C-alpha cells in the first residue's frame, strides 16, 4: 500500500516535471562554471501521505569528478532521524513520513572547483483534526445564545460543517475555510442535543461532538395566566394612565391589549371603558379586564348668552355644563347682589316680576370633583 502510493506520486511528478528547465547551479561563485557541479533533483516536489515513504534523487548533470554529494534541510536544520542518505549521497529517503519532515531539502555537490546546490520540497498530507470552542458540554438557559465554533486543520484543507445528531436544524450555521459556526440567538429546548462537527479531506474524516443542554427544556407547555397590576382606574382627562399586564405560562405568552366598546355610545369620555389584556401561547390564552373611567372637569355655557325682558316678565337663565356628574351650579351677580326673588333649580336661575334694577350680568359657575368653569349672561330690561 505504501509502495503503491509512493510510486504513484513519483510517476505524476515525473510527468509534470518533464518540460521544466533544469535548475541552474546555485552558489557557483567566481568559478568559471564548466567544472563546477551542476545538479538536479527528482522529484522537485513531492506530496505524500503522513506515514508514507518518499525518496529524492540528486542527479549530477555535469562537473568535474570527484563530486561529493550531501543533503541538507533548508536553514541548515539537522535531518530528522527518519531521513537517511544513501551510501553515495545521491538518494535521500524519508521513511514513515511525519509532519515535521515537511519543507525544502537541498542537495549540495562539492568538487575541486566549487560547490552548488539544488532543492526540492516535500509536502505531507494528513487527515483533518478538529477542535471546538467551547469544548462542551455546554449548559445554558432557554433564551440564551448558542455559539459553537469548530476549527479544523489538515492537508489538503478540509471542508468542515456542523450537524445535529439524529438530524434537526443547527440554527444559523456557516462554514468558511476550515472553520464552521453554529449560532442560535435565543435557545429553545429543541436546540438542545448533540452537535457534531465533521471535517473531511482526501486523507480522512474527523468528528467531534459537543453536547448542548438547554435548561428549562423539560418544562411542559402551560397555558398563560394573565393579570393586570392596576385595579379599576380613574383618570382625569388629559392625564395619561398606564396599565401593566403580566402573564405566566410556558412558552412565554404573547400579550396584547384591546378595548371593549364604551358602555354608553356617544359618551364624550371616549377612553372610558373596559380594557382587555390577552395573553396567548401554544397551550392556550387568558384574558384579564380592567375598567377605566376617564373623568372630565365641567365646561359651562349659558343659553342664551343675552336675555331681553319687559318689566314684570319672568327672567329665566339656563346654565349647561359638560363634565363628569355630579355637576353643581352656582349663580352670582357680577357687580351687585342677587335679587331676593331669585330661585335656583338645576342650573336654572329664575327671577319673577322683572324690574329695571335687575338688569346686569349674571355668572354661573359649574363645578364637579375635577374642576370648575364659568359662563356669563347679560340681562336687559325694557320698560313697558
Ligand atoms: C385572545 O386570543 C385568543 C387566541 O388568539 C382569541 O381566540 C381571543 O378571541 C382573544 N380575545 C380577545 C378579547 O381578543
Automatic annotation (TrEMBL):
Record's PROSITE patterns? IG_LIKE (PS50835)
Ranges for domain Ig-like come to 37-123, 128-213, 224-293, 298-380
Taxonomically, the superkingdom here is Eukaryota
Q: Which GO terms describe its cellular component?
A: axon; neuronal cell body; plasma membrane
Report the subcellular localization.
Cell membrane
Chief location of this protein within or outside the cell: membrane
What ranges does the record give for the region Disordered, renumbered to this chain?
153-176
- One family name in Pfam for this protein: Ig_3
> What residue range is the signal peptide?
1-19
The protein in question is named Ig-like domain-containing protein
